[in-house]
Amino acid sequence: MQIEPYIFHLLLHSAALVEERLRLRLADLDIPPRQARILDALGRMQKASQAELAREFDLTPASMSTMTGRLLQAGYILRTPHPDEARSNVLQLSDKGRGLLAEVHRAWSEIDRMIVDTMGQEHAAHLAGLTLELRDTLGGRGPGRARTPDPAGDQQPQR
Q1: Whole-angstrom distance, CA of residue 8 vs CA of residue 20
Q2: Which of 97, 128, 156, 158: disulfide with 76, CB 3.0–4.6 Å?
Q3: pLDDT at residue 151 tops 50
Q4: How far apart are CA 39 and CA 7, in angstroms?
Q5: In which band, very low, low, confident or very high, does the pLDDT at 4 lie, cut at 50, 70 and 90?
Q6: If we measure between CA atoms, which residue out of 4, 9, 85 comes closest to residue 47?
Q7: What CATH number has the domain spanning 7-138?
Q8: SS (H, E, C) the chain
Q9: Distance between CA atoms of 75 and 15, rounded to whole angstroms?
Q10: For residue 30, how many other CB atoms are within 10 A of its CB?
Q11: Under 8 Å between Cβ of 50 and 61
Q12: Cα 130–chain centre separation
């Protein structure tokens, strides 16, 4: 008797396989996928405190501090005093970080091409639409992307 797999298991397994390919590609740039996502969010947000970034990624401030500490140490982000809050700092991309972010975006495009080459353009576009719908329906959004009001009065994430 064949047992049908759980839907989420297939999704998790596929995501793990794609993330591993991404991890290997980003290893050439010496940056893990999650730190690359922080650079991307800072690229969109321009400036953010560690607390804001932690909220955007649904992480503890301590976890975000560890990740941003590595990016600071590598010179990819800068920390400056918050203009309105004396006890707070803001983070932003350095020139070196903007250069790395451009390389990260190229790597992400390569992963997208791998998905298209594997599945075909139509299936890849359908998969992207379905995963976006799932993420949004579950209340997620891309870090650094604002929410916009919808006609029902709920906040909808921007793409």
Answers
A1: 18
A2: 97
A3: no
A4: 31
A5: low
A6: 85
A7: 1.10.10.10
A8: CCCCCCHHHHHHHHHHHHHHHHHHHHHCCCCCHHHHHHHHHHHHHCCECHHHHHHHHCCCHHHHHHHHHHHHHCCCEEEEECCCCCCCEEEEECHHHHHHHHHHHHHHHHHHHHHHHHHCHHHHHHHHHHHHHHHHHCCCCCCCCCEEECCCCCEEECC
A9: 30
A10: 9
A11: yes
A12: 18
β-sheet bridge partners, residue 78: 92
| Amino acid residing at 61 | P
What pLDDT, on the 0 to 100 scale, is given for residue 144? 72
Q: Tokens representing 144?
A: 């650094």
Cα separation of 122 and 139, whole Å?
Answer: 26
State pTM to two decimals. 0.81
Find, among 137, 135, 140, the residue nearest to 57 by Cα: 140
Q: Return the domain boundaries, the chain.
A: 7-138
Helix axes 61-73, 50-57, angle to 10 degrees: 120
Query: What CA–CA distance (Å, rounded) separates 109 from 106?
Result: 5
